[in-house]
Amino acid sequence: MTSKYHAFSTLPRQTRNKLLLVALLYLAEGLPFGFIYIALPVYLRTQGVDLVRIGLLSLAGLAWTLKPLWAPLVDRYGRKYHWMLAALFGLWATVSLLAGINPQSAFYLPLVLLMAFFSATLDIAVDGYTIELLDEEELGPGNGVRVSAYRVALIVSGGGLVAVSQLWGFKPTFWALGLGFIILATAIFLWPSCKRPSPKQGTSLLTAYVEPWRDLLSRPYIWAVIPFVLLFKLPDAMMGPMIYPFWVDRGFSRAEIGLISGSLGTIFSIWGSLLGGWLTKLLGLSKALWTLGAAQALSNLGYAYAALPHRGHLAVYLASVTESFTGGLGTAAFLAFLMRLCRKEMSASQYALLATLFSFSRTLAGALSGFGAERWGYATFFFYTFLLAFPAFFLLPWVLKSLQSQTKTVTISPNPSKNRQGGEN
Q1: CATH 1.20.1250.20 in the chain, residues?
Q2: Is the overall model pTM greater than 0.85, yes or no?
């Protein structure tokens, strides 16, 4: 911890201020997600809501999937902090209403979906603003900080809120979360750099929707970039849903699962994200994608080994913390890569598009994971997830050539067709 603090303190003051702001923004971004997917199902079940209606909460995920439908509006109209404030006040209103109305009410699910819409809008604005805020050399540390802050928010609004509800009751904790949204909105409003104007395309609304796609598709080696976005995190996405069932089938207690794979896993993931951010800055994005991506992939072999017959609990513990730590390393580099692809004047739109691509592959891989584990058994299945890393590394040379064709800054012209990138970073 001392060395990390020293590394932070040696950064320029302006960069430190930016990273503190990034932490604040991603703390705000993570709170509603943890609430909807962790705390709310627990609350509804304690109130006697049937499993079918609880399952329908998964429809909230559509808000994050469909972000590209309104992300261009965030780029084109107002400043990013206007959208952040509106979304945070919307989150305060919806969580307060969810605390106040009967969970059996027909209005409950629509309110959850509305909360998810405000959360997705906050994601769009925060992601776009962060791309505008950070310089290229700050992307590594910035993404380490953002991943860590987001995970802390998930703990606070998910398991943390459930734990506190044991003392306070659920409704007071809901109101406390709503107050947290108001406090965050106030902090964003008072933070001077949040009010910086966003780069504007100066185009029609139709062009604002079309140009982000057209710009991405016109990039050199885009035929490699898009599959790479889909594939880089595929091994983790395929293995992830089977980890908890594996622990259960190996006879681990719920306490062990919660402590080692849940709590310690989250802590090691945060450490990995922070270290991954600094290594991305130190090594450069190209080397970071190779080295941190390799570490991320190799950790799957740890679970393959731990799943072999007669392997003890220690092997599983080590596989868990290693996978969490290296997953944080790889995520920091990958998110820096996604941000690097986005132009500042269409940051919200392009990042929403790329995040949707990434989310699609993650969802599909997760849905298929059970078939693989059922057919081959855990050890063989985990080994095969390691092999899934090779296609992304095969594409990486062309992906890096695409990055090399981009400049650090883009000159913004009223004519979007003139906003092209050239040269090397």
Answers
A1: 1-198, 203-425
A2: no
